[in-house]
């Protein structure tokens, strides 16, 4: 009798999902942008997206940081990317934080130099489950001063990742139209001031190494837009099986 024995490992990627606890966007001209109370699940990741007018009322303005209502040190907020400048422009930011314990909380972004009603700003906190908490952001980038449509291509860095785009037009041309296979998730238009918008891919990208483009199809001219794209990354579950004769013994582990 011959007994064959061996091992094989199959990676499985978690499904990224926008959790129902995701609070409404903050659309305001106040200095401290604070969400409504929400209760994210443990192990989820907060993607905090902020866009501000960097020269509100003649004051040079930036975001000084992100805080929460949890008391003590709160969550740890990591700035992943910021684009734009402080001269007649919009600045956009991406922060992330991992939720350790599920509990009611609010999140606040503070503007450094709020001065007048011209300091309109936008903040959206996305609560996402199934995220690689040690590396929540893959491909990312963008630019500023765009005049017309946006086209931000990237190559996916992992299977089943999810593309997003934050749009901030200092000239307030119009609410943008999302490109192919994308959806306008949210927007904020202030006539004569700014336009802010958030765009997502309709589905996750199945395979690593796939070309993905975050884009708009309108407005086609007259804009001064700062734009930031980023890729959400899922965690990986591996299934390792032991083959012995005609029997298969399987076990799971999580790589995060």
Please describe what this structure looks like.
This protein is mainly beta and 256 residues long. It has one domain (17-233). It is 0% helix and 54% strand. It is built from no helices and 20 strands. It has strands at 5-13, 17-18, 26-28, 32-34, 45-53, 63-68, 78-83, 90-98, 107-111, 121-129, 137-146, 151-155, 162-169, 177-178, 182-190, 194-201, 211-218, 225-232, 236-244, 247-255. Strands 2, 3, 5, 7, 8 and 10 form a 6-stranded antiparallel β-sheet that branches. Strand 19 (236-244) and strand 20 form a beta hairpin. The two termini are 42 Å apart. Mean pLDDT is 88; it is low at 239-243 and 247-256.
Spell out the key features of this protein.
mainly beta; globular; 6-stranded antiparallel β-sheet; disordered C terminus; 256 residues; 5-stranded antiparallel β-sheet; single chain
- Unreliable stretches (pLDDT < 50, length at least 5) are 239-243, 247-256
The helical percent reads under 10%
How many structural domains?
1
> How would you sum up the global shape?
globular
Instruction: State the secondary-structure class.
Output: mainly beta
Distance between the termini: 42 Å
- Order of helices and strands, N to C? EEEEEEEEEEEEEEEEEEEE
Give the overall average pLDDT.
Answer: 88
What is the overall number of helices? 0
The value of Rg in angstroms is 21 Å
């Amino acid at each position: 009798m011959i007994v064959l024995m061996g091992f094989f490992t199959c990676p499985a990627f978690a499904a990224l999902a926008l959790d129902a606890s995701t609070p409404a966007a903050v659309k305001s001209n106040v200095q401290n942008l604070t969400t409504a109370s929400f209760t994210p699940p443990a192990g989820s990741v907060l993607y905090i997206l902020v866009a501000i007018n960097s020269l509100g009322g003649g004051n040079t303005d930036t975001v000084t940081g992100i805080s929460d209502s949890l008391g003590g040190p709160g969550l740890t907020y990591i700035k992943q990317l910021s684009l734009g400048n402080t001269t007649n422009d919009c600045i956009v930011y991406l922060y992330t934080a991992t939720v350790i314990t599920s509990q009611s909380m609010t999140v606040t972004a503070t503007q450094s130099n709020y001065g007048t009603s011209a300091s309109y700003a936008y903040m959206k906190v996305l609560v996402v489950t199934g995220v690689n908490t040690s590396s929540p952001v893959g491909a990312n980038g963008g630019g500023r001063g765009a005049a017309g449509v946006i086209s931000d291509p990237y190559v996916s860095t992992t299977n089943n990742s999810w593309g997003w785009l934050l749009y901030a037009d200092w000239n307030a041309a119009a609410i943008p139209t999302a490109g192919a296979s994308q959806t306008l998730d949210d927007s904020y238009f202030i006539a004569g001031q700014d336009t802010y918008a958030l765009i997502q891919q309709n589905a996750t990208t199945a395979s690593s190494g796939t070309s993905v483009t975050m884009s708009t199809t309108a407005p086609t001219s007259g804009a001064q837009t700062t734009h930031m794209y980023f890729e959400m990354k899922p965690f990986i579950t591996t299934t390792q099986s032991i083959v012995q004769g005609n029997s298969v013994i399987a076990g799971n582990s999580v790589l995060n």
